[in-house]
What we know:
four-stranded mixed beta sheet; disordered N terminus; 5 domains; alpha+beta; Chloramphenicol Acetyltransferase; five-stranded mixed beta sheet
Amino acid sequence: MIRLVLLDGRASPALLSRLAAGLPGAAVVPLSPMAGTDGVRPRVGEAAPGGDDDVPVAFSQEGMLWHEVFSPGSQNLPPLVRRYRGALDVAALERVLAEIVRRHEPLRTTFEVRRGQPVQVVSPAGGFELGVLDLTGLSPEARDAEVATLLAFAGRPFDLVEGPLFEARLLRLDPEDHLVILRVHHSVFDDWSVGVFRRELSALYRAFAAGEPSPLADLPLSFSEFSRAQHRRMAGPAGTAELDWWKQYLAGAPLSLQLPIEDPDRPEGSPQASAEPVSMDLPVELSTQLRALARRERTTLFMTMLAAFEVLVQRITGQTDLLAASVVANRNRVELEAMIGGFTKKVLVRLDGSGDPTFTELLPRVRTAVMGALAHQDLPFETVLQGVLGARAAVHGLVPQVAVMFQGVTPQTEEVVLPGLMTSGYDTSATTTRTHFSAGRDDEGPQADTVPWGAGLYLGTFLILSLVEGADKVSLAARGAFHRPSVERLLATFETLLADIVAHPTRRLSELCLLTDDERAALIRRGGTQPDASAVRVHERELVGRAADLVDLRGFHVDRARISAALQRCPDVAEADVFLHHDLAGEPQLVARVVPVEGKEAPDLAQLQLELWARLPGYAWPAAMMVVEHLDEVGTVPADTFSQPAAGSGASPEAQLLAELWGKARGAERRDVSENYWQSFSFLDAVGRARSVGVAVSDPHISRNRTIATLARASAAERRRRENDGGI
């Protein structure tokens, strides 16, 4: 039997009657605010009672925990593995690790959600144990297999509530040959922390192995104190001023950036798979020239490379206004530099290449953009992205996404030096994997197929390009979800562009060359003459991937060919295409033109949207439809076509219930169905309560939408689709 919740009398009788009418056989029962959670320690994403002394999570941790809800294990760091040859003092090593855990709160921290907010739970120091596994009795083959199994096991998801989020294990391969495997979650340990950990490990082992006390001074600040201070500051005038700056900075910014790096053979509706990383070392001479250019123009190498990458993206996509993400260490105070924790966070950088400047004219723009973003880095990334761009996008059910990240990486130079021991790394690449965020599956209610929210419209790709600054040369490393051959071509083209930039930094962006001499010669041989700019541009696009037939729809570059192909596969549709039309308010809308199968009636708009559910996200559905005899027919879109809400766009009973539950979870009145719920843990509590009374809301739907209104429409469309397919 389906139960309908009675929210302490706060749900209106009209709402309950409408909901009951839509769910025959349902019963109305009272449910207390904390029903189902009393006496049970909740997972991240569920609610628990809170207190005034709760430690809020740092802004850098919020996004990691949210992603972990939908994709457990996605925020695991690859295991840190070191090999020690020699007479290892195991007791001293265990004491060293225990002291590091005592000094750094994050290594003994777990997480809960209390009163709709994620909080840190810091355990008292003490009780750390180093797990020891003796493999000396095994054959070399069996020993290697056991090590591989343990490393693979290290990739399993952490229990963020029970913990621990930092684990250490010692494998004894021979009496004087050991492996130490550290397993840690990214929310409590970032790249900077590796250097801190290595320095403290070396200093403490030298002291403890010699019977001496710790030589390290106590830390001046704890991570929980840092987090509390961060929240206090951003809750006041400083936070308001920072958000106002971002609103001005991002005014009119595009909602997406698409690079043609998807797999052209990927089945429609399937997500773009994660690719093996792609690496490229720049020649030493080119690396030296890039550093010299940066010094002459008073920028950093990172800014110079970011500007060059902007040129590459602009030449490929034609967009002169770009949004990219970058990663900052987020340690802008001296006392934070000696701490272990999850400080690293993303910031938005808006790049302006308008007016076809020279490269040397572009560099000051990039420097200003980067410095501005760094000066306003305290707000959470998602607060900026969704809070500023999301309000404009959510009206249309759009999801702003930054699909390109450009970050600088400084190789770790801190070596672990332990007396009497030889230390080295250990290759784990063949035995461990790290997945990127993708929507998981909920445990309750009907399950929808996991279709990426951008399937058929949005490329579903993302690219993280890391700039690695070595002593002599510069390297680039790409990872993410993309078609590997396309990114290999992209990096090769980038190297060609970089060489032309250092040779001709005062050329305008449109004049910089993306073709090697051999490629240009081949183009001349093919055409018989020196290629003009348009021919070169076409060839450049071929180098990096297929240029789609794109139109701009409220900041998204929509591929009309893909949408038309999806429409044409709908029942009773012989031919179809889409075009852009502006409604009476001047808003761009997609209109479908449909030629029905001979002897059949064309589906109405609601039927068409239902059929499109599995192929396109809801915001990509045409907002109007015209039935024509052939696609060449020119018709007029009626003036009142968009005056009524699209099918299913009203606030359904399910949407109203979610809005009331969300308001109650936040201790407030009913929320607006158009409000952005992204990264709101109190909303996940509302979803859990809604599921408990029979409202089916799947995790893929939650991850592909941002408002209750669009979420309810997607859930309703899925339910109708399953009913039509006989799945319910």
